[in-house]
Amino acid sequence: MQGFKDFIFRGNLIELAVAFIIGGAFATVVQGFTKIVIELLAKVGGSPNFDAWQPGGLTSVGPFLTGLVSFVILAAVVYFGLVKPYEAFSARLKKPVPDAAIVLTTEDLLIEIRDLLAAQKSA
Fold first, then answer.
1. What are the tens digits of pLDDT across the range 41-84?
2. Which one-letter DSSP state was computed for residue 54?
3. Are 18 and 34 in contact (CB under 8 A)?
4. What CA–CA distance (Å, rounded) separates 51 from 63?
5. Domain residue spans in the chain?
6. Long-range contact set of residues 50-56: C-beta below 8 Å, sequence gap at least 24
7. Whether the Cβ atoms of residue 49 and residue 66 lie closer than 8 Å to each other
8. Cα 48 to Cα 74: distance, rounded to the nearest angstrom
9. Burial of 48 by CB count in 10 Å (0-12 exposed, 13-18 middle, 19+ buried)?
């Protein structure tokens, strides 16, 4: 029973639950925004609704195409509305790595210590 309790209260599981809840709430916001974008596209170039289209009597092709168009619009909204601004913001926050940040090997560090000790003894 203790192992199960440890599993439940592990930080990753709690973080995952919070992310899932926030993601669900955010999904409704994105869906609402996508509906707005689809309505604007409908005013400009016609409604992207293929639900009534049934080529060869196949009734599920039209709703599939409508879902596909909605997905592409949703993906574009998320990419251009969230991903690109986040990448630009992150790029501004990144500090340039100085040239002195070269990783030294253990041997290099020992040589540097030896040289410092030798300089202290001679001084």
1. 778 876 667 788 888 888 888 889 888 887 887 788 778 888 89
2. -
3. no
4. 4
5. 2-98
6. none
7. yes
8. 13
9. middle
How does 21-46 read in b/e, with b if 16+ C-beta sit within 10 Å? eeeeeeeeeeeeebeebbeeeeeeee
- Joined tokens for residue 102: 């070269």
- Residues recorded for the chain: 123
Q: What angle do CA 5, 7, 8 make, to 5 degrees?
A: 65
For residue 107, give the amino acid letter.
E
Q: Which of 39, 97, 42, 38 is nearest to 70 (CA)?
A: 38
Distance in angstroms (rounded) separating the CA atoms of residues 46 and 43: 6
Q: Position 61: which residue type?
A: V
Is the Cβ–Cβ distance between 77 and 40 less than 8 Å? no
The model's pTM is 0.49
Q: Which two tokens stand for residue 57?
A: 């009597």
